[in-house]
Amino acid sequence: MDIDASIRHVLDWANDKLEAQQEPPWARPVYEQLTEALAAIQDGREATTLLEDSQQLPLQLDDDRLLAENIYPLDIARLRRGTVKLQMPM
């Protein structure tokens, strides 16, 4: 069973519990929250596509150096710490 089928199964189960109205009163808000969360997850999964499913062609690189040229250091602040002087208000 894939994840979408599992989400639908649990969503149907929670909706059946809400419709049956045989659970204690404190359980109803929990089932409602569960159905809202599952519906949001289901909508989010439908809005996104996997790379295998998309029509986009994968990036073809002949040389690994081309990829390395596009990598920038994430910690720019540390690299600039000694080169940029800050002016403090007096």
Short description:
This protein is 56% helix and 0% strand. It is an all-alpha fold and 90 residues long.
How would you describe the overall organization of this protein?
α1 (3-20) packs antiparallel against α2 (27-47). This protein has helices at residues 3-20, 27-47, 64-69, 76-80. The model has no long low-confidence stretch (mean pLDDT 75). With 90 residues, it is mostly helical. It is elongated, with a radius of gyration of 26 Å. It is built from four helices and no strands. The longest helix has 21 residues, at 27-47. It is 56% helix and 0% strand.
Question: Which SSEs are present, and which pair or pack?
Answer:
Layout: H1 3-20, H2 27-47, H3 64-69, H4 76-80
- Classify the beta-strand content into a percent band: under 5%
Helix vs. strand class = mainly alpha
Q: Mean pLDDT, as a whole number?
A: 75
Largest pleated sheet:
none
Q: How many individual β-strands?
A: 0
Task: Give, in order, the helices and strands.
Answer: HHHH
Distance between the termini: 66 Å
What share of the residues lie within helices?
Answer: 55-70%
Radius of gyration: 26 Å
Return residue spans where pLDDT drops below 50 for at least 5 consecutive residues: none
Shape designation: elongated
Number of helices: 4
